[in-house]
From TrEMBL:
The keyword Nucleotide-binding does not apply. It comes from Clostridium ganghwense. CDD domains: HAD_Pase. One of its GO terms (molecular function) is hydrolase activity. The keyword Hydrolase applies. This is Cof-type HAD-IIB family hydrolase. InterPro entries: Cof, HAD-like_sf, HAD-SF_hydro_IIB, HAD_sf. PROSITE patterns: COF_2. It comes from the Bacteria.
Length: 273
C-alpha cells in the first residue's frame, strides 16, 4: 500500500518526554513530505500550540486540534472543520463539573479560560515563557463562566477537567458520559476532556482525508492514548507507540518504538521510506 497521509499525535508520540521533536523524527517526516506524503498533526492541544510545533517540522502540516473539534491548515486562516460546543452545552457541562471544584478550562482555538489561576507547571504557562508575544497561547482566568459562555458561544470547542484526585476525576467523567450527549476522553489519569457529540480524532481524520480526496486505506495514524483510539481504528494503518497504554496497542495494527526512542521515525522508515 502506498500511504499518502500521516497523522501524528503530539504528546507521547511526536514529542519525547522533554516535549522535544527529535532530529531523527524531523528528518523522517521531511523525507516523507518530500515524497509527496501529507503530514498532519492530530492533538488534544489548542490549534495555536500545535501550530508552534508544526512550524518546527518545517513542512506544510494541516492541524487537527482539540481532539478533532477543530481542523485548519497552519498557514491559512480558512477553517476546514469545527465542532463548537455552544452556549447551552457549556452551561450543562459547567452545571455538573462545577461541584467537583477541579481546575476547569474551556478552550477556543487560541485561548484557555480557567476558573482558577494557572499554576506555573501548567504546560501552556511553561510554553509561553519561551515564546514571542505573537506566538503565546492566551491564558484567561474568569470567575464568571456564564459571561464567558455568552461571549465565546461561537468559539468554544472543548472543556477540560484536571485534578490529581483520580477517583473524583473518574467519577465526574462517568457522570458526564452518562448523559450520552458529549464525547468524553482522557489523555492521562489526571484529566478528561469534553467535546461536542461526534467529535473525535477519528472523525477529524475522516474529514481531512475526504478534504484531500484520500481513502482511509491511504492514511497512517500514530498515537499513544485513549483519545487516539478512534483514529487508529479508522485508518488503514493504525500505529501505537511503544509507550502506549495496553488497550491502545491491542487496537493498533502495528506497535513501533517509544516516543523517547524515535518511534515515529522508525514507523515512517518502515512503512513510507
Amino acid at each position: 500500500m502506498q500511504y499518502k497521509m500521516i497523522c501524528l499525535d503530539m504528546d507521547g508520540t511526536l514529542l519525547n518526554d522533554d516535549k522535544i521533536i527529535s532530529e531523527r523524527n524531523k528528518e523522517a517526516i521531511k523525507k516523507a513530505h518530500d515524497k509527496g506524503v501529507k503530514i498532519a498533526i492530530s492533538t488534544g492541544r489548542l490549534f495555536t500550540s500545535a501550530k508552534y510545533y508544526a512550524e518546527i517540522l518545517g513542512v506544510e502540516a494541516p492541524i487537527i486540534a482539540s481532539n478533532g473539534a477543530y481542523i485548519r491548515e497552519k498557514d491559512k486562516d480558512d477553517v476546514i472543520y469545527e465542532a463548537l460546543l455552544g452556549k447551552e452545552n457549556c452551561e450543562k457541562i459547567w452545571s455538573i463539573i462545577e461541584k467537583y471544584n477541579f481546575f476547569n478550562c474551556f478552550n477556543t482555538y487560541d485561548t484557555v479560560i480557567s476558573n482558577k489561576p494557572f499554576p506555573k507547571e501548567y504546560p501552556y504557562y511553561k510554553l509561553n515563557e519561551d515564546l514571542p508575544e505573537d506566538r503565546k497561547i492566551n491564558l484567561e482566568v474568569s470567575a464568571n463562566f456564564q459571561g464567558v459562555f455568552e461571549r465565546d458561544k461561537d468559539k468554544i470547542v472543548k472543556a477540560i477537567c484536571l485534578s490529581e484526585d483520580y477517583d473524583r476525576i473518574r467519577k465526574a467523567k462517568e457522570e458526564i458520559k452518562a448523559l450520552g450527549e458529549f464525547e468524553v476522553v482522557s489523555s492521562s489519569l489526571n484529566n478528561f476532556e469534553i467535546m461536542k457529540k461526534g467529535s473525535s480524532k477519528g472523525k477529524a481524520v475522516e474529514v481531512l482525508a475526504g478534504f484531500y480526496g484520500l481513502s482511509r486505506e491511504e492514511v497512517i495514524c500514530m498515537g499513544d492514548g485513549e483519545n487516539d483510539l478512534s483514529m487508529l481504528q479508522y485508518v488503514g494503518m493504525g500505529i501505537a507507540m511503544g509507550n502506549a497504554e495496553y488497550y491502545v496497542k491491542d487496537n493498533a495494527k502495528y506497535v513501533t518504538d517509544t516516543n523517547n526512542n524515535d518511534g515515529v521515525a522508525k514507523a515512517i522508515e518502515k512503512f513510507v521510506l
